[in-house]
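Bug #2210: token dump truncated for LysE family translocator?
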Amino acid sequence: MMGIGQLLGFAGATVVLVGMPGPNNIYISLRSLTQGRRAGVVSAFAIETGSVVYILVTALGLVAVLDASPELFTVISLAGAAYLAYLGVKTLRSSGSSSGLGSLRAEPLGRVFRAGVLVNLLNPKAALFFLAFLPQFTTRDAGPGQVRTEMLLLGLAVLVIGLALDLGYAVGADAIGRRFRSPRSTTIQRYLAGGSYLAVSVVAALTALNL
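Reproduced locally. Full output below:
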């Protein structure tokens, strides 16, 4: 198992990698901006629900299938990029009302949650994190049972750190959103949100195609 130094290094690297802006953070932030803190918090839990799936898949060794089949990984990554592009177009085509940011294309929380899970599951950054980063901190010469246990424990640590960071994005974005309540700011915000989704989808697609 890891020593204190390795553990601190793992925690620090996790904070940096998980906290860097990406599809997950942008989805949470935009939900808080457009629909308020509750939607942002629901989005944060949705994102980490997707992480639970990745943790279980990694611990069971099924991620090796993706590692052995780059084409399948590319297809999944492109599907994620397409979904982000869909969210961007949907946001740009939505119409805000005069009541401000909180009323911009509000979605039922169940739909917000399901979309958040999909955003994470189709996020190339998340897949690469669990595929390439997490296994580096396991005991390579240990038996399958110990490696599986270590992966689950490391995954739990990532889950806790990720949820804390995600909730920070949700609360921070909501605080910013509360400052903008005019019809004009709603229109600006809609274009900013839609444009952000589209920009991230382009980056995700280029990354998947190694361009």
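Output looks complete on our side. The two ends are 38 Å apart (CA to CA). Marking as cannot-reproduce; reopen if the truncation happens again.
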